[in-house]
């Protein structure tokens, strides 16, 4: 493109959910409630897991880190989303937008690996119970968590390097509520082929491999559960694993639909609704599923409620 025919963009402008009209007010209230409940529940569970000795196990150690990453993601996206809805649109600088996109991609990648680590933990606990404590020792726990956080953000440095190279000119309206990759590519006036290929290639180690790993792990788990003679043990194992699979299904399902289906595969409004699922809805249900479906968490919560009643 001839440099004389375009003007470099200094900031973008989010449209948010402009197509909803007056329903935006209802959406604002619902999202604010969801965000408040999510953060309170996540912090409550992290506090319980960190202070109650009966919850000092690898499964809850990984859960604590996963919920911490959920808090990071919703705090990165949702306050800005509420700001956009309230003002019926809001600006963001180009560097700020690229930084938000990188942090979001990095934390999302970390969550994928943490879910895989949690699946591996359940596989060892149920399929290799005699060797579980030997294999899943504190050193391996810390190694897996550090690997998830560091590798998740390191991989997305490639995305950051390509985003920084994009040129944005003339158009600066983002029909979305945060700096997701697809809306940014739509606005670029430079070649986006390298970024498209990078997203496709990185989706293999970030999305597909962890997802397949989780599925294989739980296939082994369910085969082992079906072979258990104890009905109580079978019920407890199913309860723990089904809660994890519920989160995994929603989380990976929405990400795969949003990033592996071609850009023109679904309308912008549908794209925003899918994004809303994994930035607002999934983080809301994660702590609820893990606390209600997990017997140990229910026992601790009941104990705390009984203690509060006595006070």
TrEMBL record:
Annotated source species: Pyxicephalus adspersus (African bullfrog)
Topology class, membrane: Multi-pass membrane protein
Location relative to the cell: Cell membrane
Record keyword DNA-binding present: no
Protein name: Olfactory receptor
Predominant location category: membrane
InterPro entries referenced in this protein's UniProt entry, alphabetically: GPCR_Rhodpsn (IPR000276), GPCR_Rhodpsn_7TM (IPR017452), Olfact_rcpt (IPR000725), Olfactory_GPCR1 (IPR050939)
Similarity comment text for this entry: Belongs to the G-protein coupled receptor 1 family.
One GO MF term: olfactory receptor activity
Source domain of life: Eukaryota
Stretch forming the signal peptide: none
G-protein coupled receptors family 1 profile domain boundaries: 41-290
GO cellular component: plasma membrane
Residue spans crossing the bilayer: 26-49, 61-86, 142-164, 201-226, 238-261, 273-292
A Pfam family per the record: 7tm_4
Keywords carried by this UniProt record: Cell membrane, Disulfide bond, G-protein coupled receptor, Glycoprotein, Membrane, Olfaction, Receptor, Sensory transduction, Transducer, Transmembrane, Transmembrane helix
